[in-house]
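User: Before I run my own analysis I want an independent prediction to cross-check against. Here's the chain; please return only the structure tokens and, at the end, one sentence I can use as a sanity check.
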Amino acid sequence: MAAAERPARCGGPPARLAAGLLAALLAWSGAAHAGDAAAPRLASGIYEGLLLAVDDQGAITGYYSEEQGEGVTKRCSFFLAGQAGAGEVPVKTWRAEVFPGTLQAEAKAVRLTIEQGRDHPGCGAVLLPQIATGLSLTQLEATRWTSLRRIVAARAYFHAAPLPDKRQRAFVVQGDVVAVLARRGDWLQVAYRGAKATSVGWMPAADSVALTPP
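Assistant: Structure tokens:
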């Protein structure tokens, strides 16, 4: 008479090995998610020569400006836009032409990479060659900016409140870049970072346009 088949045993070497692999996989997955959560995120602020704004939906707008020299100065400036995400984020940069690039958050800094960055007008003699492989810009100030806009009015006056009769003496001119803090109807609360101080006030939204790649 044939011996009765023995029931399969649980917990033998193959089972223990599978359980160990599963535990290791779960631990690695947890560590990876923890790492993702701790990774720096792109945030609005002043990063050396770069003004950066990120809204609640992750839309990025930026303005880079740098000058060198005394008396006769050389100036490099351009705009950028993109959509925030993990790791290196693709952005478009433009002044006279559009050049692709990337932007990546670092601890208290961002890394801006534009292979043709020095081809922007005036940037060849000002912008460091590292822009082609990654230029790290330290955060100087955190802000609450939701977007950046370019002034199109000949003069855009600041207002103490979003009302026409609250106009102040201070103004910005066509081509200046302002940062948006809030919106109320057809009015924007904006900040303008001047050479000596930052001016904050309200102005009609029609005085400026969004930074949109051509």
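Sanity check: The chain has one helix and 15 strands.
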